[in-house]
Structure formats: structure tokens, C-alpha cells
Amino acid sequence: MAASDGGHVEVVKALLEKGANIHAEDRKDGRTALMAASDGGHVEVVKALLEKGAKAKAKDHDGRTALMAASAGGHVEAVKVLLEKGAKTEFKDLDGRTALMVASDGGRVEVVKALLEKGANTEAKDPYGRTALMVASDGGHVEVVKALLEKGANTAVETPYGRTALMVASHGGHVEVVKALLENGANTDAKGPDGRTALIDASTGGNVEVVKMLLEKGANTEAKGPKGRAALMVASDGGHVEVVKALLEKGANTEAKDQKGRTALLAASTGGHVELVKALLEKGPNTEAKGPDGRTALMVACDCGHVEVVKALLENGANTEAKGPDGRTALMVACDCGHVEVVKVLLEKGANTEVENPVRHNRGRI
């Protein structure tokens, strides 16, 4: 075992001539000499062991075969030797992964090609419903993705959670992988059970190049994912201004609301994302729209003390006299929260100081 692990081929041959047990397993992990040699990429040792009858189908305690070990390490010559000796590509380890999945996960493109040439199944799935294409897409391994696509890997396969290769690549911001998938017909508007699309995934992560690519392929900007949020909403929540601009250029609806009744402007104002607020305001959204708590974007920004957002909203006609469900105006909110700079800005814009604050139980004017 030690000689095989170290790649000492002459020692291995000598031991075999002396009758060493070629099928012996390590008590700790169940590995055989062939697995050890394959794991290290020791091709000549692998050949010597196979010539003496080593079993390529043997598995260790994790269910891994010699082929999986060689594939994980990217040892393409060892992989080829094992395949020539009939190593099975369809075997799975205890994690439900085939050699192709293992190689795809590690970005081992030459190993992937060798496995595919021997008929490795591109559609085999792990317990999570992931194929080799999904695993490679998730890891951003574009050359592996291309090799799989050339062999007809299905871009439409979904996990039980409704995830496609395009979605995971978009979420990770893997531009070249997304490009390859789109060129091979990946559906931009495939949805998971929660309504999430690739565009929503990319927008959530602020991956603007992916967003632009999806939009060029006609991705639907109005599709709604978890909590009723469209791509514009999640990008606004995250403060991803370039993504917001790209979505707006393609006509994303600024008045769309999530399940709570929030608009993108309300989300951006809450987060204090001033450049994003300005981008939205250029498209003329309704500054008087109220969220689930009955407050406008101006009230929310005043509550949070986002003075630059307050300025932007006021410059675009936000109403200083609008009242929330408790009867308070933006000025009252800013005063109650102690945001002096916000108060100054509101006063400069003529906010009415004579309105009574109902929260103070008529204890006087503010």
C-alpha cells in the first residue's frame, strides 16, 4: 500500500512478484493499493496493479472507486488507463456522485473529456438532483461546461428545488458559463417552485454582466420570485445600482410591488441607496406610493436618517405634507428620531411646522 501511494513502481512490482495481496484494504478507510496509486496519479503503478488483476470496481468506505480517485485529482492518464481496463463510469460514491460529477466539480476538463469519450452519463444525478452540468456551472468551470454541452448535456434539467444550471451560474456571476448555456438554448425564464428565475438570481447577487446577458436574451423583468419580489426589487434591496440601471433600460416596472406592498423606491430608500434612488427617480416612479406600514419613501428615509436620499426625493417632488397611518408627517418622523440634518433639509423645502404631532398627544406644535 505504501509503495503504491508513493508511486514506487519497481517496489510495487517486486512485492507483487513475492505474492503481496493485491486486494488488501486499508483498515482505516478501505482503500486498496490501486486506489492509492490512482489518487496520486501514479500511472505506471496503476498499470502494474491492473496487469496483476487489481479490481477497478472495488470501493473504499466512502464508496469511492479508483476511477473516482483519479478523476478527483485530475489525473487524466490514470483515468484513461482505468477506463481501458473497463472501469465503470456509472458507479456512485456514498454522496451519490459519479466520476464525471467529481471531475466536473473540480474543473478537471481533460478528465471530463476522457470520461465522456467512454460514454459517461451526463444526466446522472446526485441525491440533490444535480447533474454534472449543474455542478460545473455552479463552480464556474466554463471549459467543463462546454465539454458537457458538446455531448448533449440537458440544460433544462431541474433539481427538486427547481434549480437549473443557468440559475446556479447566474447566481454565482459566472459570465462565461451563462453565455455558453444561453448559446445552447438554456431557458431564461425557467422558474423554481418559489418563482425564482435566473434573472432574479443574478440581480440578487449584483451580477450586472450576467443580468445584461440575460436581458439581451429576452429574460422577463416582471417575473416574481420569493415574497413576490421581481428582479428590480431584489436589486434595489441590495443596493445594486448598475443592475437597477440595466433593468430600467429594459423597461422594468418601477411600480411593481412585493407581497408586502413595497415598491423598488421604498426598498432603496429604506436601505439608504442614494444613487439607486436617483436612478429610479429618473424613470418617474410614484414618490407617494405607500408601503405596508402606510409610509411613503420620504417618511422611511426620514425615519432612517438617510439625508441624501431625502434630498433626492424632495428634488423630485416628494410631498412633505403626506401623513402616515399615525398622522405624522416626514418632518415629525425626523424630529422624533432626532435626525437634525434631515430636519434642516425638510425645513429648507418648506415643510409645515404647524401641523400637530398626534403621537405627542397634542402636547404642542413641533
From TrEMBL:
ANK repeats: 1-27, 29-61, 62-94, 95-127, 128-160, 161-193, 194-226, 227-259, 260-292, 293-325, 326-358
Protein name as catalogued: Uncharacterized protein
One Pfam family matching this protein: Ank
Signal peptide: none
Superkingdom to which the source organism belongs: Eukaryota
Organism listed in the record: Gonium pectorale (Green alga)
Keywords from the named record: ANK repeat, Repeat
Matching SMART domains: ANK
Keyword Protein biosynthesis belongs to the record: no
